[in-house]
Amino acid sequence: MKKIEHIGIAVKDLDAGNALFEKLLGKKHYKTEEVASEKVITSFFKNGPNKIELLGATAPDSPIAKFLEKRGEGIHHIAFEVEDIEAEMERLREEGFRLLNEKPKKGADNKLVCFVHPKTAGGVLVELCQTIKSEA
Amino acid sequence: MKKIEHIGIAVKDLDAGNALFEKLLGKKHYKTEEVASEKVITSFFKNGPNKIELLGATAPDSPIAKFLEKRGEGIHHIAFEVEDIEAEMERLREEGFRLLNEKPKKGADNKLVCFVHPKTAGGVLVELCQTIKSEA
Fold first, then answer.
1. Residues in chain B closer than 8 A to A121 (CB atoms)
2. N or C: which end of chain B has fewer CB within 10 A?
3. ipTM confidence score
4. Interface of B with A in 51-70 (CB under 8 A)
5. Are B81 and B2 a contacting pair, CB within 8 Å?
6. pTM of the full predicted structure?
């Protein structure tokens, strides 16, 4: 795991979240991206080598809607950047972590991602992410 | 705000937390430090430019004991590294954020720190931290 790629923060309203985190971080968000398969809309802020990803729900059955209902607004997950997601998934499986997807899937921001079940990771929803390299 | 300095994660038992996060991160923690004034014991892992800080309670009235009771184990706060903590505190006050301490206080890992109330920061407990430079 090379670094914290981003921290995902669940917000009720993406525009209000953008306005608030612009004030907090002292800079504007630089992109918005919908991940239709996950029923989320995301907004990204750069913070040195790291990013903050705001997450809004696009449907009542979105995982973010469920999180907001249960926990309210706040930190949703930590994403670690990895070089080789399949190797890291295999390593974690062998260490006894439960993965939420069998194969890497396409996430926001041109990444292949895999989530680790928080019950096996100290109550933390952990995301692994690997940047998708464009083929030459 | 220069980067995510660390993510604080509340754990019930520091030894068990160390063992779990060693497996997750694929490396050993490099130090343990008690912050008596906060009634916490901390353990640090490096992760590229960032750190993971495990937080255990050292007394039943520790803020970490209260957090664990209410939320269970999991992410407790995000700490951002700042160059000038007093200037950043002043900027945030003017933007309407509520700070949990009036003046910077001494935290773990040779830092001056200040916390921002999660009610004013989208449900996120935000820590500002500035490295204490030793005087020449």
1. 20, 24
2. C
3. 0.95
4. none
5. yes
6. 0.96
| B7–A122 C-beta distance less than 8 A | no
Give residue-wise pLDDT tens across range B70-121: 999 999 999 999 999 999 999 999 999 999 999 999 999 999 999 999 999 9
For residues B18 and B9, give the distance between their C-alpha atoms in angstroms, rounded to a whole number: 11
A89-120: burial string, b at 16+ Cβ within 10 Å, e else:
beebeeeebebeeeebeebbbebbbbbbebeb
B3: closest chain A residue by CA: A48
**CA-to-CA distance for B12 and B8, rounded, in angstroms?**
13
Using an 8 Å CB-CB cutoff, list chain A residues near B3.
Answer: 47-50
- From A127, A85, A92, select the one nearest B20 (Cα to Cα): A92
Q: Which of B23, B50, B124 sits opposite A3 (nearest CB)?
A: B50
Rg over alpha carbons for chain B, rounded to the nearest Å, is 15
